[in-house]
Amino acid sequence: DPTGTYHGESDLQMERINVFYNEASGGRYVPRAILVDLEPGTMDSVRAGPFGSLFRPDNFIFGQSGAGNIWAKG
Question: How many domains does the chain have?
């Protein structure tokens, strides 16, 4: 959920949760992810969303200007 708390009853999921999540203090789970984009706007959307607070701020990597829908530039 958006607080980083696991809600489930599967023992198998709990055994393998460390594949996709790191356990933080208080039993909170933080996604093991690096988010990369050429423009900061998409990252701002992720941060402002309901799950944005789960991601570590230093795992957001973005440029200052996008590719402007030019695939060869991006």
Answer: 1
Query: Is 31 a domain residue?
Result: yes
- pLDDT above 70 covers what percent of the chain? 88
- How many other C-beta atoms can be found within 10 angstroms of the C-beta atom of residue 42? 15
Distance separating alpha carbons of residues 55 and 32, to the nearest angstrom: 8
Q: What is the per-residue pLDDT across 29-38, written as a single tens digit (0 to 9) for each? A: 999 999 998 8
Residue of 21, 15, 6 whose CA lies nearest to 55: 21
Kindly tell me if the per-residue pLDDT of 73 is higher than 70: no
Please check whether residue 24 lies inside any domain of the structure.
yes
Residue 60 carries which DSSP code?
E
pTM above 0.85, yes or no: no
Task: Please tell me the distance from the alpha carbon of residue 68 to that of residue 11, in angstroms, as a whole number.
Answer: 46
Domain ranges, residue 55? 11-62
